[in-house]
Write a structure and sequence with these properties.
This protein is mainly alpha-helical and 179 residues long. The chain contains 6 helices and no strands. The longest helix has 38 residues.
Length: 179
């Protein structure tokens, strides 16, 4: 090979190496920048225990104690529901499908889940009776953001639209839909 061929080959190798190093550095930067922002993003506080965030710390402690007590009282229902779900899965996977046994297991599981939910909801209602009207408003706002009463966040572009359920009820009643 001549001197000229070596110089062209060396220049081509240099350009390729600079391109590869730039790609690796850019990819690493993007990965670390994205990874840090995801790790530092605040976690959504959607559990029922966060519904009292707008209230005083004493009220928050009262609510947590009532919630813990309701869950303690509903521990048997939670166990029954868990066992029922395991039984349902076993019945579904069984070689012989027994619809009657599946229906019984589903009903038992549903009843246990309803009983547990009733305990928790009763605890929430008992707590609400101890609040002042202003505290109840704050508590209701907290429930909109946490727990099973949480309202979905509106989609972008859906601002000002009525829920489909209210539009359907207006249509059924013959009332004109107003936007």
């Amino acid at each position: 090979m001549s001197d000229r061929s070596w110089k062209i080959l060396l220049a081509g190798s240099f350009v390729l190496n600079v391109f590869l190093l730039g790609g690796i550095a850019g990819g690493a930067y993007q990965w670390f920048a994205t990874h840090d922002s995801v790790a530092k993003a605040p976690q959504a506080r959607t559990a029922l225990r966060f519904a009292t965030d707008g209230l005083s710390s004493e009220r928050q402690k009262e609510f947590l104690e009532g919630l813990k007590e309701a869950r303690r009282e509903g521990k048997d229902y939670a166990r029954e529901g868990r066992e029922g779900r395991h039984e349902v899965l076993a019945l579904l996977a069984a070689p012989q499908f027994d619809r009657a046994a599946l229906d019984v297991a589903l009903k038992r599981t549903r009843d246990a889940d309803i009983a547990l939910r009733t305990e928790v909801e009763s605890s929430v209602a008992d707590f609400a009776t101890t609040l002042t009207p202003e505290e109840r408003v704050k508590f209701a706002e907290g429930l909109k953001q946490a727990g099973q009463w949480r309202e979905p966040t509106p989609a972008s572009g859906a601002k000002g639209k009525k829920p489909a359920s209210s539009q359907a009820s207006e249509a059924a009643s013959g009332a004109p839909a107003s936007d």
